Amino acid sequence: MKVMRLLSSLKHDESERGIFHLGRALVKSGHTSITISSADTDHDLVKRLKRDGNIYHQVSLQKKSWLSLRQIWPLRRLIEEHQPDIIHIHSRTPAWVLNWAIKGAKVKRKPMLVATMYGFYPINNYARALLNVDCLITVSDSVSEYLSKKLHDVKHPPRSITRIYRGIDTRKFPYRYNPSVYWLRRTFAEYPELEHKKWLLFPTVMGQEYGQEWLIDIIGNLSKDFPQLHIIIMDEDSRQDVVHQEFMQRIFALELEDKFTFIGGQHNDMREWLAASNLVLGLANQPESIGINLLQAIHLGTPVVGWNKAAFKEILLPLYPQGLVKEDSAYALCKVIRNQLQNAMRPAITDLFTMPQMIDETLEVYRSLYEQSQQNYENRFVKKRKFKTPFQRK
């Protein structure tokens, strides 16, 4: 079985896509794994793919760029060269390039198409090519439900829909992991205000949809009873957008600036921050489709708090229900956080939402489509032999 995967980039959302784990699993199973993305061939992530036995080609498939349509012919040539059985699309721009490339491709058998829908995408013309596939993988039941309500407007809906949760690599995020003494010393040297504090981690940048305004309610309501409470935000403190400036103005007006530390948005030590925190917060105002940071924290054994909706609900209900906030109110949020701080209970170790589980379910989708393709081909071949010309019958 030959599987070709199309991505805009390799780095974006690596932990959610499982690109490297999936490629390794395909090769170990004796299949051919072909990966196509915009990354340079000398990039470290590309070298990692090649070490695992993947075939790699660089094709510029940048998101939301009309220039990506120039790659129709290069992609068509690669499809003709490799003759893949399965093509897996990981975002909308590659879906459009493939839509045109495959139409004129000279292939023995048309590849079966798989796409993964990672969020609550608007069901518009841009998303249309992503939906016109043999199987659409959604990353949560919430995304599946959202899609089912929208499909009546879609001219070419997916032939089938399968939900496969994103999985965590438990070797990289082991249960009860403790950051090294070196990391702690370096962190306290850089952020001395964090020493002897209770860390509440906001593991995302600030934005309209991420819910950073709830942090002020948390400090305002709980800092009297918990004077060592401290909020850590994974964003820069020097950003100049409107949302960031409004937030900074509020904390300075309320004289709360000593309760917040900004550590920047790009970190290779996310695991350490998640493991060292007393509590990890999922406060997104809009429904989350994956909730990867809360999932990583739970696998590390760190308590979490999140709204009782979408992916947060799907993760916390089976793994850590005491972290669910059932009402969208400051009172309900602070009550749950207070309980967590007073009665700290780590999430139990779990074998749910793991990378091996995600890989096995994805490979099963590939196998099913491959068998379906083989059956369709054999049926067409039998049909051709069955209807012979009068001359052939003699």
Summarize the structure.
This protein has 16 helices and 13 strands. With 394 residues, the protein is α/β, with parallel strands linked by helices.
What are the defining features of this structure?
Rossmann fold; 7-stranded parallel β-sheet; 2 domains; 42% helix; alpha/beta; 16 helices; 394 residues; 13 strands
Average of pLDDT? 89
| Share of residues in helices | 40-55%
CATH A-level architecture of the largest domain: 3-Layer(aba) Sandwich
Instruction: Please give the count of helices.
Output: 16
Using the coordinates shown, work out and report the CATH topology of the largest domain: Rossmann fold
Order of helices and strands: EHHEHEHEHEHEHEHEHEHEHEHEHEHHH
Radius of gyration: 24 Å
Query: What is the C-level CATH assignment of the largest domain?
Result: Alpha Beta
CATH superfamily membership of the largest domain, which one?
Answer: Glycogen Phosphorylase B
The strands making up the biggest β-sheet line up spatially as: 3-2-1-4-5-6-7
